[in-house]
Amino acid sequence: MHVVVNAATSVDGKLSSRRREQIEISGPEDFDRMDRLRAAADAVMVGVGTVLADDPHLTLDVEDRRVQRLRNGRPGNPARVVADSRARTPTDARILDDEATTYLLVADIAPDDRVEALEATGGVVLRAGDERVDLAAGFEALESHDVERVMVEGGGEIVFSLFEAGLVDELSLYVGSLVIGGRDAPTLADGEGFVDVDEFPRLELTDVERLDDGVVLHYAV
Ligand SMILES: NC(=O)C1=CN([C@@H]2O[C@H](COP(=O)(O)OP(=O)(O)OC[C@H]3O[C@@H](n4cnc5c(N)ncnc54)[C@H](OP(=O)(O)O)[C@@H]3O)[C@@H](O)[C@H]2O)C=CC1
Ligand SMILES: Nc1nc(O)c(N)c(N[C@@H]2O[C@H](COP(=O)(O)O)[C@@H](O)[C@H]2O)n1
């Protein structure tokens, strides 16, 4: 599995405010870059925290990109993936509409009635992990559904877990020219955090580009 993490933060590293509402940090040029990344992926993934906070759709904005994918024998939109240990995704979430296949990675503790409710919407439930989604096992399950390249859009909990598990191959980070602040506002990598210097993932800065009124930092991991 090739894993690309893409996100947008304020200059102080926040993905959103302490209210955890969706904030437009990117401008039109960066949203277009994000759409291009989606178009290149087999699947776009978020954690259930992002589904509950933002109710994202995770499909392509630019019709030409959908057409091009269809010409190449691929589904018009990339699949959507939610890491959702307890199957908390609401059945009326936008990611469960019929515009793309949606995979829900759940853990063994997910209640059967919730799993059945999600399956009834057409969502494909894949079990990976006991109490929390085992992301490596989840990616293996996705590979058996021909998902080889996944773009992860966040949020901070899932991004930290991916770094912790050594599963990230590339990171692109748009840093918008604003300060959000707040000790309880989500950051790019939340979770427990690393403590030992040896644990900190070291990234290779491969490119820097100016977009909108901000900058995109490209890293190989
Ligand atoms: N600016 C940007 O680019 C973006 C901003 N955001 C913002 O981020 C915020 C949401 O981020 P956050 O709250 O961190 O939520 P996440 O989207 O990271 O989801 C976290 C949840 O995922 C579930 N999960 C399942 N398996 C794992 C695992 N192995 N490791 C970690 N989590 C797992 C957990 O719930 P459970 O245990 O129930 O499974 C966890 O609470 C929102 O404010 C949103 O607006 C989000 C995306 C992009
Ligand atoms: N890259 C980026 N820049 C921003 O400024 C953002 N607010 C986000 N947010 C994420 O974008 C997704 C929304 O998807 P849809 O437009 O509904 O398809 C979702 O993952 C947000 O959290 N990203």
Automatic annotation (TrEMBL):
Keywords: NADP, Oxidoreductase, Riboflavin biosynthesis
Pathway(s) of this molecule: Cofactor biosynthesis; riboflavin biosynthesis
Bacterial bifunctional deaminase-reductase C-terminal domain: residues covered: 2-217
Record-level Gene Ontology MF annotations: 5-amino-6-(5-phosphoribosylamino)uracil reductase activity; NADP binding
Record EC number: 1.1.1.302
Gene Ontology biological-process annotations: riboflavin biosynthetic process
SUPFAM superfamilies for this protein: Dihydrofolate reductase-like (SSF53597)
Keyword Cell cycle: no
Catalyzed reactions per annotation: 2,5-diamino-6-(1-D-ribitylamino)pyrimidin-4(3H)-one 5'-phosphate + NAD(+) = 2,5-diamino-6-(1-D-ribosylamino)pyrimidin-4(3H)-one 5'-phosphate + NADH + H(+); 2,5-diamino-6-(1-D-ribitylamino)pyrimidin-4(3H)-one 5'-phosphate + NADP(+) = 2,5-diamino-6-(1-D-ribosylamino)pyrimidin-4(3H)-one 5'-phosphate + NADPH + H(+)
Class of this enzyme: oxidoreductase
Top-level taxon: Archaea
Annotated family: Belongs to the HTP reductase family.
NCBIfam families: rib_reduct_arch, ribD_Cterm
Subunit structure, as described in the record: Homodimer.
Name of the molecule in the record: 2,5-diamino-6-(ribosylamino)-4(3H)-pyrimidinone 5'-phosphate reductase
Organism (species): Halogranum amylolyticum
